[in-house]
Amino acid sequence: MARRLALRVALSLLLVSGCSARPETSAPAAAYNAADVMYLQMGLAQIAEGEPVLALAEERAGEPRLRELVTELRGQWGEESGTMRRWLLGWQQPLTADPSAAHDGHGALHALRPADVAELRAAADFDRTAVNLLLGHLGNGVETARMGSASGSYPPARALADSQAQRRQAQIQRLLALAFP
After folding, report:
1. How far is the C-alpha of 136 from the C-alpha of 138, rounded, in Å?
2. d(CA 95, CA 88)
3. Where is the secretion signal located (predicted)?
4. 146: which of 36, 65, 102, 110 is 20 to 30 A away, CA to CA?
């Protein structure tokens, strides 16, 4: 009898301790899907690929509007990558995609390569080359964001994807104005 009472008390304490007033700090496991994970991993990879272009443009761009856009991108990418990392780590997912599955389900988006950065570094017409690289890079970002928005299930990630697609499209329009004055 005493054993049953002790068991009931222990179970009651266990149940009560599970009901906490603390807010949940990470997303429930069921709230995201594989498309959310792929979108975030690809987004982080694209930001990392674009960083060398931004660094060179901060040093060498002559066009003030290009410099302004680069500063804007650096701030946005910093915020976005922090959010993406937090979600992936909270879900206990890797920050990078499995290389063998890197292009599953989203076509063959061209990634910025070290050769592209080397070409930019050596470019006589730096601004034009930087604009062209950023146009392609931001275009890929729009496609990745659309994939995340269309196929993801985690509402905050879908909202981030929608916001990214809109911002990247506006930034592409600004770059096109520089490319074709």
Report:
1. 6
2. 6
3. 1-21
4. 65
- Residue 32 identity (one-letter amino acid): Y
Q: What single-letter DSSP state applies at residue 24?
A: P
Ramachandran angles phi, psi of 152, nearest 5°: -75, 165
DSSP string, 74-127: HHHHHHHHHHHHHHHHHTT--SS--GGGTTTTS--PPPP-HHHHHHHHH-SSHH
Find where tokens 């911002």 sit: 167
pLDDT greater than 50 at residue 167: yes
Mean pLDDT along residues 134-154: 97
**What is the torsional sign of CA 104, 163, 153, 41?**
positive
Task: Give the Cα separation of 178 and 84 in Å (integer).
Answer: 30
- Three-state DSSP state, 166: helix
Mean pLDDT in residue range 105-119? 79
Whole-prediction pTM: 0.79
Angle made by CA atoms 103, 153, 138, in degrees to the nearest 5: 45
